[in-house]
Amino acid sequence: MRIDVVTIFPEYLAPARLSLLGKAQSAGLISVQVHDLREHATDRHNTVDDTPYGGGPGMVMMAEPWGLALDAIADQAKTAGVRPRLVVPTPSGRVFNQAVASELAQVEHLVFACGRYEGIDSRVLLAAEADFDVDEISIGDYVLAGGEVAALVIIEATTRLVAGVLGNEESVADDSFAPGRMEKLVEGPVFTKPSQWRDLEVPDVVLSGDHAAIARWRRDEALRRTATRRPELIEHTPAEQFDSTDQELLAALGWREDQGRWIR
Length: 264
Ligand SMILES: C[S@@+](CC[C@H](N)C(=O)[O-])C[C@H]1O[C@@H](n2cnc3c(N)ncnc32)[C@H](O)[C@@H]1O
Known about the structure:
Layout: E1 2-7, H1 19-26, E2 31-36, E3 49-50, E4 60-61, H2 63-80, E5 85-95, H3 98-104, E6 109-113, H4 123-128, E7 133-138, H5 147-159, H6 170-174, E8 196-197, E9 200-201, H7 204-207, H8 211-229, H9 231-235, H10 244-252, E10 256-258, E11 261-263
Helix pairs in contact: 3-5, 8-10
S-adenosylmethionine binds near residues 114, 138, 146 and 150.
């Protein structure tokens, strides 16, 4: 997978060189190129923003530097014969989640356009449609100061799903919101050595070596945690996705089945 990030703060992307993503780059599985938007500014002050037409507070990122930066990436992609996906982090985009991460993990070339101030002149995305599949994505209902952190979130969640990036592929299947599962549960508690720490012990079942019992315990705890913290995930799951033990647990937690769903 190839990733390009355009930003006025290239240093913000430094974490992309660390940990799993850093190793994936060393292994040649992923390449990340960070571009400074100001290199495409057209005046001697490297200006990339101006006041908004129509008035109002703040500044808007100018179309021309963005147009030139994206043209340069599009030209390279054309040479490679790939149509990239242009991911534009914005609070007004579709909401990012594990399913979107799985979708992006299949894309050969991702380009991130990191906005600042009041965002990017809207004509940039219209013009970009000629060369890119434009995808406006929000990482949640709050407003960041810029798109860089959002791009890092999307890149990190997406690249760990690219084949070969995680050492242990099974951990993807066990994750909260694991792709492919109809029901989306958050993961339950996890423990490592020592089995006793301060006055707290790891539950006996987890130490038992009985894999079926451990799997059931994990499932119960995931269900218990989801029911408490993210009840809407259970409410949106068709009832047939829950086995009889799940259903007993949900009933014990005060849930009931109603028209093919479990509700509180
Ligand atoms: C201060 S925000 C602009 C907010 C804009 N006035 C609005 O209300 O939509 C500057 C930039 O931060 C990024 N950003 C802010 N919140 C975000 C979110 N929840 N998800 C993704 N990107 C976000 C976007 O790139 C945005 O252009």
